[in-house]
Automatic annotation (TrEMBL):
<feature type="transmembrane region" description="Helical">
    <location>
        <begin position="84"/>
        <end position="99"/>
    </location>
</feature>
<feature type="transmembrane region" description="Helical">
    <location>
        <begin position="60"/>
        <end position="78"/>
    </location>
</feature>
<feature type="transmembrane region" description="Helical">
    <location>
        <begin position="28"/>
        <end position="53"/>
    </location>
</feature>
<feature type="transmembrane region" description="Helical">
    <location>
        <begin position="106"/>
        <end position="124"/>
    </location>
</feature>
<dbReference type="InterPro" id="IPR046096">
    <property type="entry name" value="DUF6114"/>
</dbReference>
<keyword id="KW-0472">Membrane</keyword>
<dbReference type="Pfam" id="PF19609">
    <property type="entry name" value="DUF6114"/>
</dbReference>
<protein>
    <recommendedName>
        <fullName>SPW repeat-containing protein</fullName>
    </recommendedName>
</protein>
<keyword id="KW-0812">Transmembrane</keyword>
<keyword id="KW-1133">Transmembrane helix</keyword>
Amino acid sequence: MPDLDGARVSPGTRAWRAWGAWRHARPFWAGLFVLLGGAEILFTVWAPLGVVLHVGMQGFIGYLIPVVIVLCGLLLWFNPAQRLFYSLICVVGALASWITSNMGGFIIGLLLTLIGGALAFAWTPETAEDGSEGVA
């Protein structure tokens, strides 16, 4: 299949370009940091009893908050129009995980989620020359 300039392009090249366009049209790195932070917090809740410093409030909320954080990370990727709401939920969830989930996943998950939430809050979509939103 020819490219815009008439040269033939392999399917791998087209897939790589499509991946790049998808990644640039949303807060990709913010979602990745939030996903990693939420997963780390969730895995520390499952840690063996000898490793766990604090069991958490009623157990259930210790599992609920990291699951909500992971869902917000996925929603940042697949629904970037609501990124401000999701980023605020991520930050509040990360701060709540300090109490409920072993010091926020032994601080690592807390920091990853806070960084991802801040990146999502600061991300703005690229605008075209005519002022419309979208990939330029």
